Amino acid sequence: MRRPHALVLTFFSLIFSSCEKDPPLKEPGSNEAINEWTMAQMRHYYYWNDQITQTNDYQQSPDLFFKSILFPDDHYSSILQTLNSDTYGNTLTNTFGFDMVQLQTTGKTIQLITQVVPFSEGDLMGLKRGDSISHINNEPFDHSNLKSLLSKSLLLPAVHLTRNDGKIFHLPASYISQPVLYTAKLISSSPTVGYMFLSQFDFSGAYSLLEAVQNFKSQQIQELIVDLRYNPGGQVAFTSFCALLLADIKENDIFAKYQGNKNIKNREDSFAAALQGQPDGYSFSAKDVLKQGLHLKRIYILTGPNTASASEMLINGLKPYIDIIQVGDKTYGKDMASTTLSTPEEIHGTERAWHLIPMIYKIYNKMGQGGYSNGITPSIKIDEFAFLPLPPIGDTRDPLIREVLRTISDKNTRVKGTVNTTEKTNILSPKYRGSTYQVIPIEVSTADKTGK
Question: Residue 307 belongs to what domain range?
C-alpha cells in the first residue's frame, strides 16, 4: 500500500501567514475565503503581480483558482494542500525508481531507461540504464501513448515493465529516496580526472560528498567532471555547499542576486549566507567547508534538458569565478526562486491548510548574468541520445565523458567539440525526455514584512 506523501517545506522557505491585516470576511475554510486570501498574497509577492489574470470566480476550488490567475508564461508556481496527495507531483523516479526517454528513429519509436535509482527494486532486479522497454502493464508503447500510459501507471500500486528481450520487471510503488551521490570515482589517471554524479541537491548527501572530495584530494585530481544531466535541483544551501567544496571561491563571494517586484526588496546572498540555510541537524561553516575543498579553477559540468533549477543556479553562480566548461545539451531553463505562503487558521478554519508556492524572484549571478529561461547553452554541444546504446552512469564510453577526456587530453577548451560519430544513430527527435516537470523549486525567504 502506498504511503501518503507528507508535506515537507524546504528549510529555506519562510511561511507567511497572511498578506492582509483585515480579518477574513468569508467563512473560514470556504473556497471564497481561501481564494480571496490567495489573491491578496499573489498581488503582493508574485513576480508578475501586475499581470495576474483578473477573475470574479472565487467559488472554484483553490487549486483551480490559483492556476487560473497565473501569468501565462509561468510554468512553475504551484499550490499544495496538507496531506492531499492529489496536489503533489509523483514521478517515475520517486515512485518506482526509474526514468525513461522515448526516441523517434526512422519508422519507429524506442523507449530507453535513462536512470535506475541505486538499491531500488528495479536495480536489485537487474534493470539497467540503456535497457529498451516495449510494454508497460502489458500495453505496448507507440509514438502517441507514452505519456498517458506513464500517467496512469503513477496511480497504480505497481507497474510491470517488459524489456525487449521479454524479461518482466515487477516494481511496487513506494516513496523512493534517491542517494544524492550515485558515484564518485577516478576515470583517468593521466591526467587524473575525477567524476561524480549528483542526482539532486540535498543535505542527506553531505557526508558522502565530503568523503568523495577527500578521496579526490588524496588522489590529487587535476580535473573534475560533475554530472548534472538528471539533476532537477534542490536545496540552495546544499548547492552552496557543493560550490564551496569544489570551486576556487571565497566564502563572501556573491553567489546569487534576486530581483523581485516593487513590493519586495531585491537581495543578494554570498556563498556563506546561502549555506546558513542548511536544515536542522547540520552546522557546516563556510570556512570549514572551504578548508576541505578542492579549490578547482575549472570544472566540467555535464548537462541536459533535465538539468534544472538549483543545478542551473550552480552553473551560473560559479561562472564569474572559475572556468565552467558545460558539455551536453541545453538545460531546462528555470531561472526563478519561490517562497511558500501558508493559509493561517483564520482562513482555512478546520480544513487542511493550503500552501502557495509562487515565483517571486528572478535569479542572477554576481555579474548580473541570468535570463536563462530558455536554458543555458553548453560550451560543447552533444546529444547523448544520438549515441546508442546508453552506457552506465560514469562509463568512459559515454559520449559526453569521452569528449571531456578528449578536450582535457588536447589541452584545448573548444567552443564546439567534435565526437567520433561511428556509433551515431539515426535519432530524429526525442518524443519524451523524462520527468522534467518535477523540477525542485528554489525556495527562499523574503526580507519584506512591511504591513504584513
Answer: 181-335+370-425+437-443
- CATH code, domain with 242: 3.90.226.10
Euclidean distance between the first and final Cα of the chain, in Å? 43
Angle at 75 between CA 90 and CA 41, to 5 degrees: 100
Low-confidence ranges of the chain (pLDDT < 50): 1-20, 24, 87, 412-422, 436-437, 449-452
Query: Using a CB cutoff of 8 Å and minimum separation of 24, what contacts does 406-415 make?
Result: 407/300, 407/325, 407/327, 407/380, 408/188, 408/191, 408/193, 408/223, 408/300, 413/323, 413/325, 413/379, 414/379, 414/380, 415/379, 415/380
Helices (H), 190-333: 206-218, 236-246, 271-275, 286-291, 310-318
334's CB contacts (< 8 A; 6+ apart) are 76, 233, 308, 309, 312, 373, 439, 442
Which of 172, 206, 238 finishes a domain? 172
Query: Which pTM does this prediction carry?
Result: 0.88
Report the C-alpha gap between 332 and 401 in whole angstroms.
20
Whether 98 contacts 117, CB under 8 Å: yes
Q: 202 in helix, strand or coil?
A: coil
pLDDT tens digits, one per residue of 430-446: 666 666 446 777 888 76
The dihedral sign for the CA sequence 327, 333, 339, 340: negative
The predicted pLDDT at position 143 comes to 84
What would the pLDDT profile of 103-117 be if each residue is shown by its tens digit?
988 778 999 999 999
- Spatial CA neighbour of 313 closest among 439, 180, 185: 439
CATH of the domain at 107: 2.30.42.10
- Residue pair 349/272 in contact by the 8 Å Cβ criterion: no
Q: What are phi and psi of 3, to 5 degrees?
A: -80, 140
How many structural domains comprise the chain?
Answer: 2
